[in-house]
Amino acid sequence: DAGVIQSPRHEVTEMGQEVTLRCKPISGHDYLFWYRQTMMRGLELLIYFNNNVPIDDSGMPEDRFSAKMPNASFSTLKIQPSEPRDSAVYFCASSEDSYTEAFFGQGTRLTVV
Amino acid sequence: KQEVTQIPAALSVPEGENLVLNCSFTDSAIYNLQWFRQDPGKGLTSLLLIQSSQREQTSGRLNASLDKSSGRSTLYIAASQPGDSATYLCAVRQSGSARQLTFGSGTQLTVLP
Asked: How far is B106 from chain A (nearest CA, A)?
């Protein structure tokens, strides 16, 4: 398996634009996590899914953020409208179940100017 | 709410030294604990996973221990090398209905040649 795949790797956008980040988890993994990493706050859990169902989205900072998982092999994190304070590295991770390792993608570095 | 703390925040050692990184967590209701390595500008690489029923796990020069009742884990690195320089993060997997992965803020390790 190629691991967790995220796209794009880098995104630069203007304030107010819509941004969509994409993630393909490892095949057969039932859990999918979205994290945001900044120097100030470290790694923050935004939302996680189990079997494509959102379980906990309490980490989503505002209504501007939304996430979907339409099927077991694809998830999106959307920010609309984007703001400069959304600039961070966004990671997607997946695990087979609660007992096994979580594997991370390479991240998407988002810069909002 | 689970809180994960890593001490020290940064550590600098000469090559060849054995060293210990510490991780503590406030809620012992966990499935497992995972140690990760993150190189600058890169994603997270899984190093070791310890299940809640285990006391330790070893991989090469790395040894991780877990004392669930006291909420502590240590990562022991033997005979450190400059290539070990990175940020080391620990994360705990909650048990119960909320099964998210909660991270510490990491220890930035520099091994001097």
From this structure: 8
Strand order of the sheet with strand B4-7? Answer: B4-7, B19-25, B72-77, B62-67, B56-59
Chain A residue numbers touching B42 (CB-CB < 8 A): 106-107
CA-nearest of A111, A34, A14 to A74 is A34
Residues 6+ apart with CB under 8 A from A9: A106, A107, A108, A109
CB B21 within 8 Å of CB B48: no
> In a mutagenesis test of the B interface, which of A37, A43, A60, A97 is the best target, namely the one with the most B β-carbons within 10 Å?
A43
Which amino acid would we find at residue A46?
L
Say whether B101 and A33 touch across the interface (CB within 8 A): yes
**Residue in the block written with tokens 């609309």:** A80
Name chain B contacts of A104, Cβ cutoff 8 Å. 36, 43-46
Nearest to A99, CA basis, from A23, A25, A31 = A31
CA distances (Å), A104 to each of A34, A39, A91, B12, B73, in order? Answer: 10, 18, 7, 27, 21
Model pLDDT for residues B34-65, shown as the tens digit of each residue: 999 999 989 999 999 999 999 999 999 999 99
Return the bridge partners of A90, or none: A36, A108
In Å, what is the CA distance from A88 to each residue of A42, A48, A109?
10, 18, 6
Mean pLDDT of residues grouped by 10 in chain A (113 residues)?
Answer: 92 97 97 95 93 93 94 97 97 91 96 98
Residues of chain A with C-beta less than 8 angstroms from the C-beta of B92: none
